[in-house]
Amino acid sequence: QVQLVESGGGLVQPGGSLRLSCTSSGSTLDHYAVGWFRQTPRNEREAVWCITPSGATTSDLLSVKGRFTISRDNANNTVYLQMNNLKPEDSAAYFCTAGNKCDIDAYNMDYWGRGTLVTVFS
């Protein structure tokens, strides 16, 4: 059983950085694809970044490319989302998911965390 827990959210000013962490309190994550999604205040769900078990990464969200990166540390059973140069439009609830492969539709992932809130304000 995979139970995902996110951490690292908070309040930050524009241009600031945060690093989100996703860990599992159950099975290890090393053989799962892990995807980060965000739910915006407009109730839109966006696929942010995903990383495969082999470490390949993928994102279709142009607005975060060059600013956000995803990585995994299998020794610590953690997947990170490093977010730099944050903008107010990045404000959202960020949650991680795990599944057999990356998918832009969160409903196709098998396990979800509860999320962590990121607020970017001036």
Low-confidence stretches: none
Major β-sheet profile: 7 strands, mixed
Structural class: mainly beta
Terminal CA distance: 41 Å
How many helical stretches?
Answer: 0
- Using DSSP, what is the number of strands? 11
Shape: globular
Q: Residue share in helices?
A: under 10%
Using the CA coordinates, give the radius of gyration: 13 Å
Fraction in beta strands: over 45%
List the helices and strands and how they pair.
Layout: E1 4-7, E2 10-12, E3 18-24, E4 33-39, E5 45-51, E6 57-58, E7 68-73, E8 78-83, E9 92-99, E10 111-112, E11 116-120
Parallel strand pairs: 2-11
Antiparallel strand pairs: 1-3, 3-8, 4-5, 4-9, 5-6, 7-8, 9-10, 9-11
Structure in words:
The protein is mainly beta and 122 residues long. Helix content is 0%, strand content 47%. It is built from no helices and eleven strands. The chain has strands at residues 4-7, 10-12, 18-24, 33-39, 45-51, 57-58, 68-73, 78-83, 92-99, 111-112, 116-120. Strands 2, 4, 5, 6, 9, 10 and 11 form a seven-stranded mixed β-sheet that branches. Strands 1-3-8-7 form a four-stranded antiparallel β-sheet, with no helix packed on it. The chain is globular. The chain starts with a strand and ends with a strand. The model has no long low-confidence stretch (mean pLDDT 96).
